[in-house]
């Protein structure tokens, strides 16, 4: 099964739509609830990161019998230092984003904690692609 979503940067009202849809699909497929929770947390963090930091983004999700593969690609500033961005509490979110309650610097660390495989590719000033795989 394949699902695709688009995300507009700055539109926090749309953040969470993909993770909600994926949660419903995985429940229908009978996936373990603990696994669903991890996937939804990681995907939600990725959605919020696109909304908070990028101009726009796309999510491609492949669901197989034994795993889910999520690829989030955005057009945005990229990540100058991935190692630093993986540190809990480190954030480059704007003051406006932080005032809305986002940008606490837990996005990438939470994605890593809640996925079996995480890969980040980025080109500073252009884009970031995050690939997450969870096994059921």
TrEMBL record:
InterPro entries tied to this protein: HATPase_C_sf, HATPase_dom
Q: What residue stretches are annotated with the Histidine kinase/HSP90-like ATPase domain?
A: 13-133
What Pfam families does the entry give? Answer: HATPase_c_2
Top-level taxonomic group: Bacteria
User: By what name is this protein known?
Assistant: Anti-sigma regulatory factor (Ser/Thr protein kinase)
Q: What is the lineage of its organism?
A: Bacteria, Pseudomonadati, Bacteroidota, Bacteroidia, Marinilabiliales
């Amino acid at each position: 099964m394949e699902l695709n979503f688009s995300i507009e940067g700055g539109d926090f009202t749309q953040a969470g739509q993909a993770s909600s849809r994926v949660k419903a699909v995985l429940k229908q497929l009978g996936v373990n609830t603990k696994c669903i929770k991890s996937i939804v947390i990681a995907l939600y963090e990725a959605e919020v990161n696109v909304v908070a930091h990028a101009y726009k983004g796309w999510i491609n999700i492949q669901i197989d019998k034994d795993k889910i593969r999520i690829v989030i690609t955005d057009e945005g500033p990229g990540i100058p230092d991935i190692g630093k961005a993986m540190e809990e509490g480190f954030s480059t979110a704007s003051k406006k984003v932080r005032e809305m309650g986002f940008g606490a610097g837990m996005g990438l660390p939470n994605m890593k904690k809640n996925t079996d495989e995480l890969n980040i590719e980025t080109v500073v000033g252009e884009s970031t692609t995050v690939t997450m795989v969870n096994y059921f």
